[in-house]
Hints:
mainly beta; 6 helices
Amino acid sequence: MNRGLWIGTRGLQRGLMLLSILLSFSASLGFASNGFAGPVQTPGGETIIGKWQGAIGTPKGQLRIVIEISSASDKLNANFCSIDQQSPAIPASRVTWDGSILKMAITAINGNYEGKMSADGNSIFGTLSGGGQPTSLNLARTTPETAWLIPEPPPPPRRMDANAIPEFEVATIKPSNPSRLDKGLTVRGSDVMTVNTTLGDLIEIAYGLHAKQIVGAPSWLESEKFDVTGRSDTPGQPNVDQIRTMMQKLLADRFQLKFHRDKKDLSVYALTVAKGGPKFSKSARDPNGLPGVSFRGPGNLAVTNAPMEVFANLLQVTVLDKPVVDRTGLSEKYDFILKWKPDLGQFLGLDGTPSPTPDPDAAPDLFTAIQQQLGLKLNATKSSAGVIVIDNVAKPSEN
């Protein structure tokens, strides 16, 4: 079964820890977040308003968190900032305080925080949960002398000229560490990197295909894995089409890939709009920015600034056993969260064991969730689909 890209398999097998959740969320949602405030002060006069800071323990050390709480009318607002990761502020979607207990929901990371204020009003003892095991996060009220310096957020990446047709100026291809379980694709400026990716994965990136749309592949298509590190010959961050262009040239030059296109009747899933229309909105993010797709755990997917083509491709290379054909007719970029109960055929771990399903009664199956939460439908059908027939391919040339 195809296991897909842009996910950490180890995390999918064991459930994502909080650090992975914070790392994967790389952009501010850009909307106000609030909830009913309740009393702003305790009977003793302590207020919840202000900056609070604390740290969570990770395998690599302490990760410092700053939470700023403010109020407007009868609403409380809160923003999370992971300052050691220099991540943008993450707004809480709901904040409540009853004079001693603080509760916050952070939809963007599928997280919740609950803590109790100390008698002197200077500490909050609580737990942050989301995607994995709950993590202790105790907060201290800051003063000008004790407050941690919050670094300026990094500037937005420079975009590559949309008319550019880039290729890799330099690229290294190395065998992956055989003990590594996760795989992924990362873009940092003009650098494009893949980790633990097979030839099948690279073809899927380059041409947006499902494994069943690759015909005549060698026996090592899914068994040999590579780390690819390349830098574009054109400055700026490439868009999705430009990443595909670079990957196509890399496959031709370094893997000697040659193929011809054909059509084949395949079992596919058709993604369409359900009666009543879609239940999500157009993204307010930079329309020229890269899409964001990340799993917060098995069956918990966050999509930001992504067209339906990207969502359909993610489903086919990561979750489903058949190609997914986008027939929604939706042409914008969108933000949404999708939660479902994975079955044993989804998120198959690299060791051959199915991923565990947390809270099995908490969410519907994928097909029901797509209709209920997104206003879309996913139906199995037969369709003539494009395939590539491999005429020649070789293991990659030396760096």
